[in-house]
């Protein structure tokens, strides 16, 4: 069953079975470290399939191990968490759930980054690989990670003695759904996803009555001037040929229009591919934040707290080439593209680094194919809803089928001896 | 007892009694239309003093009427509501209370505008006037209003048939504590408090991943550019010799640093003294908000919703002069100053306008006297915490004594026949 | 002839004679300290009228003295300089002249502030007063000042020993044409024109190629951020009830679009009416300029050079009242209005201060009356071209007639004994 | 003499001879289309060397042709124009010259982009190639182009029938001095220099007096807001992985601090490598400029005039590989680096495109080697003066020697038959 001709039809069968599960996960998204329902579903399914399951690694992480004779150990990873976004897809399985976030605020929740696809596809790949266990030999690890979205879920699992609880793998494999045309797989060897650094910046003003700004230091104006100035980090201080992104994702100040608040809080996200660029961005951001506080006559220095730091994700070149060849056999050569580097970030690389083994991580197309081709042809990819958008909605098929098949194909490349000669 | 020599000592005695009440009110502030505890306290006290009390006018408003023979009808007004500000005064009676605001958010609450002083002083004045009821003749109305802070409390009471439920007065009197030196009274005849207009502005972006701004329309940048541009309304479009204040008191966008949100919300507060200026400010604000949305390539026009509109507060010149003379007799001429117009707003004028009678509304000094004098001498009044600041903390004495005495003095000016010849 | 009934017709006759002179002056404007042609015309005319004339006081200043028996000494003042503005009035006597300014640049020149009206009206008043010299007694001084527009012309004349060369007056009188309706006179006692402070600010960047901003510090961005931030001085740091204006009138940076320059130069103009406000504006401007340079990572501190400082112009209350009465007798009470304070500045007050005598300085209406009334009624005075606009074009009549008559009337108020009883 | 061992010593000898010429050219820079002295020097030297010389092609362009038997035709190109930059290198041969630019302004002039190196090196290469003419066979064209800096010099020569006046070449070769370490050569095959588009943008305000902004539309504020907003084109609208640079190189508004001007003029320079990015930048720039004018209430739409448009410079891959091999033989393999794409632009590609032949264009290191290595190691290349900086000063040696040798080596690669077998 594990020969190239059979993987796709089998994946299609399983994907059809799992479509209701996917819609259910989509309808009931959970924030970072709150993935109780999702983790429970994953654990139950793995147990039913015969995996030995450990729950609660890194709070809500779930790992299943299937020992199937001698041979390599392959780790397939999916992340589970959703985002505080209010869904506007109009889907009949759209989320209307809300949750309390880490700061205690009541927020809407949505699978706006497609982790529901990742969970479903990994469950499907586990089923497919169990179904053809006679064709391969080795150990299969299915890992469901919490809190990929800036929550440090991979680090939390590592800190919770992950590789003492489960075997150390020989390769780490995973995928992320993206606004590529559904059916396509995107694989870029070498540095592929950016490093992320996140900061919470508190700008201090002096509060007072909205009618008497002269007695205050207005933090809304201070925050606005800072945001405008921060645009110049990328536009003026980083070479056009280098890559850096600085996003002020959140800005919150004030409780009432006739009160001038005493502080504003900015949430900043920085992407980069090399240390020199990263350092320059952070150094410039810091300089600007302090200087703008001075321009306002702030009574206190601003506080800049680093809340997150992801390294660059590097796909091992040899393992990537090997995986790409396997994909080409199953999906056809023209379906496997090189999307170049992306500015997104991922902490899956930490699992491979901790294990000291190669990583291969690819993009799974989820966009309606014709819409993608039209957008690509006109250079207006902004016409497609991207990850984190309230409109992000992968088409279920062929996304799920290809997602199941891609994970299974990549795993079999390491686990199926018969595949090896073909490499 | 109502002669000038006795008002002050009697007020001091009552103020000392009421100081614990004041501290209790300060410690337990209530948001607009949620003043249940405060209203209950006011109603009970008025009943105990012999007033006929009506509760629940305009939701939480309370009015007591004391009929004491023939003569004029005088309305004394206090407002009761507090603000969503986190208190930082360090007082031992500081508030740590929180409440759910009208939008459903959990917010801190503080008497940052001194309405607790107003409530306490009116209860004290009621007691003082009851105590000397043999010396005057007429009808006394003590009115405790909800929701002065932009909530439309005066309008709500009027809409709830206020002047069918209680007699129409001959004059409306009231006071507001302010960062003048404690002991001072500030009274400005004519237009004295600004008109207020408040707006909630929703700016629309297009959401997406923080690493891919090119696929989004970033509402944080749009909001920041709008805030900076709105500064030019006052700096460039209003004559230096005219008065207008435009404050963006709140700015909220985004839930997470790595998500670009799809909208930002601004709370804007506008002050003005005449219609031409007011119209120009609103017209310019509207033009800028729409143009900035276009500059960002917003997918939808911004929405500008008027949430509040207070008229200019005008002190009747004759009634003001009469009140000023009475104050000078009790407090000394040099204690009654003309603070000029202030940019604050007040809806107390609506009560007088509805009744078709004169209004006299004055500022009650609440700042530590030496600090006030030092700040005044150096032109740096911004060294004093102003209304709506998390540090706003009137000194209890002589503020309460003067507050009680001022209300009583003004009322007696209309009610005490013996006072009349002296005018 | 100097009785109220005859002043106006006589002024009208003279104004008609002088209209060609006015058009000629308008067509040939001269920049500060370059008023050679204008000064020559003034000197020649005064000599022909019998004045004793001194030329070259303060470079191009001209003063004529007419001694006419015992009595007070009255100084009438006109300023002569034009502005580097390209005229766009479309008048048949519009200027197309150009000149080299103090920095060596070739610039267009225009009488965009109406000093041509002042010169013409003073020549006419001199003629009128000579014509009725039998009716008055005393000394008349006609002073033509250079460089009022920020050039320090009054100070230059004082420094050049003005009051050793001509008698010290008992009163200084003068007028400024303004976009009031023609026929109107505006006189405001007390502080009437703002203080001015001007600054040249040099912001330092680091130059380089337009394609490699990362190797530079871009002074255009620094200048833009500074300009936006400077708007907050008035919008946030000065009370709405105080008056301050901060204008960045000039901004120059760069020589070529593909070169990033190494500096930018801003010309800033500040208006205020009191020292506390003035100091706050300058302090805030200084703070912002330095902080914005830090935000850009400037290699050198910015330089802020004070280029000009005019005091507040204060009209002596008693002398103003006396002058107003005289105007009302000649023009009718309703033609003499109080325009309130204006944010314009004037150095004529320095002449009075130096002499230690009262000043009376009024606005002379120059706008087409119906246009003015329409603009006033709708609160859109910005529909009228204001001083310094390329479209500023006083209507010749009745502006010139009233200008001649007003100067003559005011002078006679001090010089004509017969007028005194009427005061 | 043309064997690899002899090119470098011969180039060194000639470079030493030409150093005074270089210093003289540096001291007397000439603006675009004003390169009369430089062109005269080039023409005379070529004639002395035996070239047939045509002057005045494209106004000031000079082309020399040396026919030396059968064989290929090679065109070596140097550009001659300098920039309106005030030199601050402190060199004893620094320029203090000034000139009148195309707009009539008097400006400083400096060889801030190193075209003086290009001219000198081409003269030296011509001498070297004449000296070894027995070793090669074919036709050598030495072309001295005017107005590379945005002036359209290449287009001007083409429009002036360049390839009717001189033979059509088989290859176009040239070089540009850059802040690489002196001794290094940088050659990038494929798209290597960015496309440039330049614009002059006129923003319209309404002029008036500096003290009455409310009657005006302030073009300085409009320009500042526009500059700040234009930063968001690169920071928010172009993917981090794409390359675009948008520089506002010039901003000019106003003549006097107390006059609000009626317009501001921006000079904008855009760099890009592909049409989709280019179109997006220009579309966004246009949208922002119009929207900001609306935000200010401009009386007229802004004008955006395209003043320049250079295509991407593409090095022919095969010809580049061939040239690189020749360089490696002469200079050593490690001296020839791939600098990647640069954001600078060049119109030399137009000559190759017009001729329909390959182009090879390389960077010539001009920075002091140790300073370069230190800057490179710390990632702070901004420590080195870059092209267009007032401090840009290539070290004369080994820059000139390598510049002469590189041009000669590349030419001989096509012209010297004996070299061919080694390819």
TrEMBL record, chains A, B, C, D:
<keyword id="KW-0378">Hydrolase</keyword>
<feature type="binding site">
    <location>
        <position position="115"/>
    </location>
    <ligand>
        <name>Mn(2+)</name>
    </ligand>
</feature>
<dbReference type="InterPro" id="IPR017439">
    <property type="entry name" value="Amidohydrolase"/>
</dbReference>
<dbReference type="InterPro" id="IPR011650">
    <property type="entry name" value="Peptidase_M20_dimer"/>
</dbReference>
<dbReference type="GO" id="GO:0019877">
    <property type="term" value="P:diaminopimelate biosynthetic process"/>
</dbReference>
<feature type="binding site">
    <location>
        <position position="388"/>
    </location>
    <ligand>
        <name>Mn(2+)</name>
    </ligand>
</feature>
<dbReference type="GO" id="GO:0046872">
    <property type="term" value="F:metal ion binding"/>
</dbReference>
<keyword id="KW-0479">Metal-binding</keyword>
<dbReference type="GO" id="GO:0050118">
    <property type="term" value="F:N-acetyldiaminopimelate deacetylase activity"/>
</dbReference>
<protein>
    <submittedName>
        <fullName>Hippurate hydrolase</fullName>
    </submittedName>
</protein>
<dbReference type="Pfam" id="PF07687">
    <property type="entry name" value="M20_dimer"/>
</dbReference>
<feature type="binding site">
    <location>
        <position position="113"/>
    </location>
    <ligand>
        <name>Mn(2+)</name>
    </ligand>
</feature>
<dbReference type="InterPro" id="IPR002933">
    <property type="entry name" value="Peptidase_M20"/>
</dbReference>
<keyword id="KW-0464">Manganese</keyword>
<dbReference type="Pfam" id="PF01546">
    <property type="entry name" value="Peptidase_M20"/>
</dbReference>
<feature type="domain" description="Peptidase M20 dimerisation">
    <location>
        <begin position="199"/>
        <end position="293"/>
    </location>
</feature>
<feature type="binding site">
    <location>
        <position position="176"/>
    </location>
    <ligand>
        <name>Mn(2+)</name>
    </ligand>
</feature>
<dbReference type="InterPro" id="IPR036264">
    <property type="entry name" value="Bact_exopeptidase_dim_dom"/>
</dbReference>
<feature type="binding site">
    <location>
        <position position="149"/>
    </location>
    <ligand>
        <name>Mn(2+)</name>
    </ligand>
</feature>
């Amino acid at each position: 069953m594990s020969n190239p001709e059979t993987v796709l039809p089998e994946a299609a069968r399983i994907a059809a079975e799992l479509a209701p599960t996917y819609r259910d996960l989509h309808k009931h998204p959970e924030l970072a470290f709150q993935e109780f329902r999702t983790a429970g579903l994953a654990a139950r399914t793995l147990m039913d399939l015969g995996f030995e399951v450990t729950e609660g690694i890194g709070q809500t992480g779930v790992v299943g191990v299937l020992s199937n004779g001698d041979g390599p150990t392959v780790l397939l990873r999916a992340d589970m968490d959703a985002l505080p976004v209010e869904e506007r897809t109009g889907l009949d399985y759209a989320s209307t759930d809300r949750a309390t976030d880490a700061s205690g605020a009541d927020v809407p929740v949505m699978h706006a980054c497609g982790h529901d696809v990742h969970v479903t596809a990994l469950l499907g790949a586990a089923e497919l690989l169990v179904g053809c266990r006679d064709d391969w030999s080795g150990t299969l690890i299915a890992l469901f990670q919490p809190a990929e979205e800036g929550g440090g879920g991979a680090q939390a699992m590592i800190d919770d003695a992950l590789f003492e609880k489960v075997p150390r793998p020989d390769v780490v494999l995973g995928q992320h759904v993206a606004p590529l045309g559904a059916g396509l797989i995107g694989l870029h060897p070498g540095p592929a996803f950016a490093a992320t650094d996140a900061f919470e910046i508190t700008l201090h003003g002096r509060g007072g009555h909205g009618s008497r700004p002269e007695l205050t230091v207005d933090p809304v104006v201070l925050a606005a001037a800072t945001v405008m100035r921060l645009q110049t980090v990328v536009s003026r201080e980083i070479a056009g040929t280098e890559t850096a992104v600085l996003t002020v994702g959140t800005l919150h100040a004030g409780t009432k229009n006739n009160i001038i608040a005493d502080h504003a809080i900015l949430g900043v996200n920085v992407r980069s591919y090399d240390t020199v660029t990263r350092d320059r961005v952070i150094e410039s951001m810091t300089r600007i934040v302090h200087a703008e506080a001075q321009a306002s006559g702030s009574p206190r220095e601003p506080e800049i707290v680093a809340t997150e730091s992801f390294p660059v994700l590097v796909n091992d070149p040899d393992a990537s080439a090997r995986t790409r060849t396997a994909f080409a056999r199953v999906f056809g050569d023209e379906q496997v593209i090189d999307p170049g580097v992306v500015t997104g970030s991922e902490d899956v690389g930490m699992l491979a680094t901790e294990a000291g083994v190669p990583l291969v991580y690819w993009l799974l197309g989820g966009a309606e194919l014709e819409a993608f081709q039209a957008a690509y042809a006109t250079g207006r990819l902004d016409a497609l809803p991207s990850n984190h958008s309230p409109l992000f909605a992968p088409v279920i098929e062929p996304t799920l089928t290809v997602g199941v098949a891609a994970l299974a194909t990549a795993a079999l490349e390491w686990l199926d001896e018969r595949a090896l000669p073909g490499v």
